[in-house]
Amino acid sequence: MTNQKDNSENNSTYDVIILGAGASGLYCAMHAAKLGKQVLVLDHAGKAARKVRVAGGGMCNFTNMNVEAGNYVCANPHFVKSALARHNQWDFIDLVATAGIEYEEREDGQLFTTAGAGQIAGLLVSKCHRAGVETLMNREIESVSGDGPFVVKCGRETFEAPSLVIALGSPASPQVGATTLGYKLAEEFGLNVLPIRPALVPFTVSGKDGKFCNELSGNALPVTIECEGRIFSGDMLFTHKGISGPAVLQISNYWRRGSPLVVNLLPGDNISDLLEAHRTENTALHNFLARYFTRKMVGLLLEGEDPETAVSQLTKERRLALAKRIHSWTVKPQGTENFTKAEVAIGGVDTDEISSKTMECKKVPGLFFTGEVLDVTGWLGGYNLQWAWSSGFAAAQYV
């Protein structure tokens, strides 16, 4: 329940102040309140859990059946283990099931609501309200100071608490209010913040490969895609700017500027073997390839070649060259699209500054960080929301 107070009020004191009414902030608030803490949540937006409400295409991919530390990108790969182990996907699934929210399992263990993301957002807001959490929206956070009690100023209002949780997320999805404030506050407290960049984000492609993508804009196909030693399988979508789709978003977490992507456009077959098996056919090459690709794509794959060449007339060299083009299409992205198109960010508050058990800052007692503001980035598929639940719960036990 959102509580709108008059800005003429002066000081208010709480046990815990949480900055950010998103997934991890609300989850931390409800659990801290259950433990008897007087909790205040502050947010600049007009509505709580805005990013949750649009997650998973509006159906909220709220967790995954298979959550492991390996599903996360972090400078310290061990950091996520403690929080994930102490409050895992089954704990959140139990909360959802107990609330009577229906959900379904999709590919790769992804769990989605069947009636919309508003159910998860509503559950968080309702749980906070019932636990006695005070939630103040439309509050611009002007300054944060102190090391216990912490003092937060919003206009003419001042709030104090011995514990402060920064759950302000990353700048990904600014269209729903995302900002860099969490990083700025961390730096003000003397914490190291690792460089950030868009993640789970489409690539932009220029030059000859860019023309290839633009010509095929709107077409999707299953692929495997490799970069920096990582391989993901899934759909790839050609766009007028480059490439997108689940497999592409996944690999974007590991891409470094200048690194090539190697894409297998036909992962279920070996085109060289197929051509060899049909080497006596007089079928034109473009008709043979049309069994596996759209006519438009076949035309682009054979650009500059004679598409009417019969399969039986293909030389070994041409067959191998075509196989390389199809199974090892190598593209060097110009870059990625910006935070508007990104689902999350890579980088953030350095986890070396934070206790993996409590989410408390090691050098500023009483200061906690949860969720996406930390240098923890999950794969596509519910992993980032699970980190919000797990880290929020961990902090709630110690605030």
From TrEMBL:
Keywords: FAD, Flavoprotein. It comes from the Bacteria. Coiled coil: none annotated. Residues 197-344 form the RsdA/BaiN/AoA(So)-like insert domain. Signal peptide: none annotated. Residues 15-397 form the RsdA/BaiN/AoA(So)-like Rossmann fold-like domain. Pfam families: HI0933_like, HI0933_like_1st. Its cofactor is FAD. This is Oxidoreductase with FAD/NAD(P)-binding domain. It comes from Maridesulfovibrio hydrothermalis AM13 = DSM 14728.
